[in-house]
Amino acid sequence: MSRGDQLASATPASEKWPRGKVPFWVGEAFAQDPRWTPQAPLSGQQQADVAIVGGGFTGLWAALALRQRRPQARIVVLEAQFCAAGASGMNGGFSHGYWDALPRLLQDFGEADALAIAEAGSEAQRQIERFCSEHAPQARFSAGGRVKLASSARQLERFDEYFRIARVYGLGDRIRAADPREIAGYCRLPSVVGGIHFAETATVQPAQLVLALRREALRRGVRIHEASPVRGVQEARDGYVVQTTAGSVLAGDVVLASNASLATHPLLRRKLTNFSSYVLATRPIPDKLRQMGWNSDIGFSTAKMFLNWFRKTPDQRIVFGTGGGPIGFNGASSGALLQHPGTYRKLLGDFLQMFPQCTASDIACDWAGAVELSTDRLPFFGTLPGTRIHYGCGYSGHGVNATWIGGRILAELVTGDAAEWSRLPFHTRAVADWPREPFRYLGGRLFRSGLMAYEDALEAGRAPSLYASLVQRLSSIGPVRLGAR
Length: 485
Ligand SMILES: Cc1cc2nc3c(=O)[nH]c(=O)nc-3n(C[C@H](O)[C@H](O)[C@H](O)COP(=O)(O)OP(=O)(O)OC[C@H]3O[C@@H](n4cnc5c(N)ncnc54)[C@H](O)[C@@H]3O)c2cc1C
Description:
Blueprint: H1 3-9, H2 24-32, E1 44-53, H3 57-69, E2 75-78, H4 87-90, E3 94-95, H5 102-135, E4 146-150, H6 153-158, H7 160-168, E5 175-178, H8 180-186, E6 194-198, E7 202-203, H9 206-219, E8 223-225, E9 230-236, E10 239-244, E11 247-256, E12 273-282, H10 286-292, E13 299-302, E14 308-312, E15 318-322, H11 341-354, E16 363-373, E17 380-383, E18 389-393, H12 402-415, H13 425-428, H14 439-459, H15 466-475
Parallel strand pairs: 1-2, 1-11, 2-8, 4-13, 11-18
Antiparallel strand pairs: 3-7, 4-6, 5-6, 9-10, 10-11, 12-15, 12-16, 13-14, 14-15, 17-18
Helix pairs in contact: 1-2, 2-9, 3-9, 3-12, 14-15
Bound molecules: flavin-adenine dinucleotide.
The site of flavin-adenine dinucleotide has 38 residues, from α3, α4, β12 and β16.
């Protein structure tokens, strides 16, 4: 076991995750921050102007955006476990906006809104970079770009739409074709027939970014209580009583930033369904990376709906993930969807296929996290009708960049200031409902298996079965956008 791995298993995180399942980033971040101590749980009855539920990227960016607009406001963040315990501390660390979603954004929203979303993502990217350079050098924001890889002619054909759009909108510096030769110059990968180079992608150490946001929020006078799970929010005469296990806060406004757990909220559960993302990290393998010729900070993703993505770390590990985990029944965000041996086996198989130089013994740790999916795979923000309770969720596995935008929108919803960010469709559009349970779960399982079979067949150069083709066709019809990646 390397020193980093030993330290990882000794962090506070090991109380939450079974041994060997501590997200690499969390283990590394806590090991590198010896001054970290938990913020005391909420106790007794307290008062605040704004209570934020959830201490991940959304909650912390919202706290900082609010602090900027209302320097005197009393802001409290209530975090069930510790900041970085959620998706924000365990994700792939790919930070990018929405240029790679432009084809479907244009189709769904038209030109003006689609471009506004993409520009908002670029602004978020600049601001995250700035925050990292000023306050979070440990988050190692590195704008190395990303290549989306095609491994079959059919996948390559689907890229044409990107290049057409890039030509029409003059986006050649952001979206361009990368041929197999260029890609091999970044890293020699098997079965690559071409790709798209997206310039606007950075990698970060996500848990370090959360810890930096937490430090900054504390420094700017935001109160944070960890180990403070919110049990309920009740309306009171002069605001809302936010109840935790050991205390309560009376607050004028409440922000729900608790991500996948919102899939069980009575007023939001029809808008969200949870699935899971599985990740593995190798031990440092500098010699193998050298053999592959992977010597820049470029990241990669595949062109599948249940994609793989991979990147390397400064200490020469590969972090490799998949969005292909199972679906949670009735909004579940833990339990079976995070412990699915079949998904882990597939992840490992995909990893070994992509990196034949590696073996299973190179893997240092693996973990899984819940991802909340909206029907159009875009985040949404709003205020529960007739209340001062605001929410933001639905990032659909793409939240490192979008949570910055989310923080701005939530701050505008609280303060009622001139709408800048809340003019985006992230706030203004109507989000379609998922079907009711058990149809959502059963349908989700059918779509998952059908789409996976379809994509596996294409990748292997086989014709997809009739069932798989039918599911693929159905998946992009109607308000639910599943098969459009
Ligand atoms: C494995 C994985 C890989 C991913 N990879 C990427 C990627 O590479 N790029 C990308 O852009 N996005 C990625 N994502 C998505 C991204 O991580 C999320 O969209 C983003 O972190 C959401 O931030 P958040 O603050 O809303 O949620 P979270 O980080 O989950 O924060 C919510 C917080 O709320 C707390 N909480 C929950 N319930 C309560 C309660 N009752 N009371 C108090 N607190 C509560 C939780 O403990 C948690 O800390 C990935 C997600 C996963 C799981």
